Structure to design on (291 residues):
C-alpha cells in the first residue's frame, strides 16, 4: 500500500473508536500476532482501571483521517512505602512505513511526567541505543529458567489458587485486587500460606526459545527470596497443571533453585524515580496482551 504523506499529521490519544484500526495497524507491524490478539489486549485495557489523568490506551498519529502510527501505554498505580507510585509500560509501537520517522512525536507525548516511572520490557536490540539516549537505564539483562518443583521443601505450606474472585480466606490480602485482575487475564495466581502469613505470586504465560517453548513467567512477588523459599510447593502445584518451568527476571542463578541461566537474553529498562524490584512487573504487556 502506498501512503500519501502530504498534509498534516496530528497526534492525539487513542480512543475506543480507534481500537479496530489500531489493532489492524499493529497486526501489520507484528506479523506473527493476528488482529484478534491485539483486540483482546485492547479490550482488557478498556475494562481495567487507569490512574486518573493518564491515557487509557496510548497515543496515535493521524493523517488523512486514519491512524498511521501508534504507541500503546499501560499505566498503573500502586502504594509503595506509603506513597502513590505511577508506572507506565511503554508497550508496542507500530507505524506505516512512510511515517516511521515520526516516532519521536509519539514518545515525546508520553515521557513528560517526571513523577512517573516508565518501563520498556521488550525492546528490539537495534532500538536499545535510542532508548538509552532517551534517559532509560537497564534494571535487568538476564533470565533464569527454573525447575522449581526440584527445590527442597523448607516448611509445610498450603497453596491457594486465586481465580477472578479470591477465596474468602484471602479477603484481607493487600494484593487481592491485583491477583483477581491477573487471573482474569489468564495468569496463574497462587498464594502460599505459611506460619508467618500469606505470600502472593503471579505467573504469566510466556513462550521462549523463538516462541516455541511455553513456560510461566514470574511477574509478581514481594521478594525473589520468597519465591526461592516456596519454590518446591509452588513448582509442584504448577507441574501438576502442566507447567514444569518458571522464567524469572534475574541476571544469574538464584540460590536454592535448579535451572538454566539465560544470560543477557532480554534487557529491561526503566526511566523515573521508582524502578521495579526483581519479580515485580504486574500490569504490563506480558499479562494484559499475553505471550
Amino acid at each position: 500500500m502506498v501512503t500519501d504523506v502530504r498534509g498534516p499529521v496530528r497526534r492525539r490519544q487513542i480512543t475506543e473508536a480507534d481500537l479496530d484500526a489500531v489493532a489492524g495497524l499493529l497486526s501489520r507491524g507484528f506479523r506473527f500476532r493476528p488482529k484478534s490478539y491485539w483486540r483482546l489486549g485492547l479490550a482488557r485495557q478498556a475494562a481495567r482501571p487507569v490512574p486518573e489523568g493518564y491515557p487509557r490506551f496510548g497515543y496515535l498519529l493521524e493523517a488523512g483521517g486514519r491512524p498511521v502510527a501508534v504507541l500503546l501505554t499501560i499505566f498503573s498505580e500502586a502504594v509503595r512505602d506509603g506513597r502513590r507510585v505511577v508506572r507506565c509500560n511503554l508497550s508496542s509501537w507500530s507505524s506505516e512505513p512512510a511515517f516511521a520517522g515520526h516516532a519521536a512525536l509519539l514518545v515525546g507525548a508520553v515521557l513528560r511526567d517526571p513523577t512517573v516511572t516508565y518501563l520498556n520490557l521488550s525492546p528490539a536490540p537495534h532500538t536499545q541505543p535510542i532508548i538509552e539516549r532517551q534517559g532509560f537505564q537497564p534494571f535487568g539483562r538476564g533470565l533464569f529458567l527454573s525447575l522449581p518443583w526440584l527445590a527442597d521443601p523448607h516448611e509445610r505450606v498450603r497453596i491457594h489458587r486465586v481465580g477472578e474472585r479470591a477465596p474468602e480466606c484471602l479477603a484481607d490480602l493487600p494484593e487481592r485486587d491485583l491477583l483477581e485482575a491477573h487471573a482474569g487475564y489468564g495468569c496463574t495466581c497462587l498464594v502460599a500460606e505459611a506460619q508467618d502469613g500469606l505470600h502472593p505470586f503471579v505467573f504469566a504465560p510466556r513462550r521462549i526459545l523463538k516462541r516455541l517453548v511455553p513456560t510461566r513467567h514470574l511477574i509478581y512477588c514481594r521478594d525473589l527470596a520468597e519465591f526461592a523459599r516456596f519454590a518446591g510447593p509452588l513448582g509442584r502445584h504448577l507441574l501438576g497443571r502442566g507447567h514444569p518451568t518458571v522464567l524469572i527476571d534475574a541476571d544469574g542463578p538464584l540460590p536454592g533453585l535448579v535451572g538454566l541461566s539465560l544470560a543477557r537474553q532480554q534487557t529491561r529498562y526503566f526511566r523515573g524515580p521508582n524502578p521495579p524490584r526483581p519479580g515485580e512487573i504486574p500490569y504490563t504487556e506480558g499479562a494484559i496482551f499475553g505471550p
Observations:
- Residues 1-5 have pLDDT under 50 and may be disordered.
